[in-house]
Amino acid sequence: MYIELGDKYVLTADQYQYIVQEKKTVKEGKNAGSEYLSLVGYYPKLSQAISSLINLDVQLSDVQSLHAMEQHINRVALQCEKAFMETAS
Fold this sequence. Notes:
Elements: E1 2-5, E2 9-13, E3 18-25, E4 35-43, H1 46-60, H2 66-88
Antiparallel strand pairs: 1-2, 2-3, 3-4
């Protein structure tokens, strides 16, 4: 399983867990400009992986109100839903 969630995160899985990784770009050196995946966490359940992803994204955002936070959470949830739908088809 390899599911891109928006342009920032990737969800993968093995037989034991779900793995959330963040896409990053090498800034210096001979591989400058290339993309790599940085580990966010391992989760035994898919729901935990998605909850963690939403929490992380909200914490890193610049929301200033509960309403803005709700909109941000809905946006991330829709990105996840879209990614799962594209993978299923």
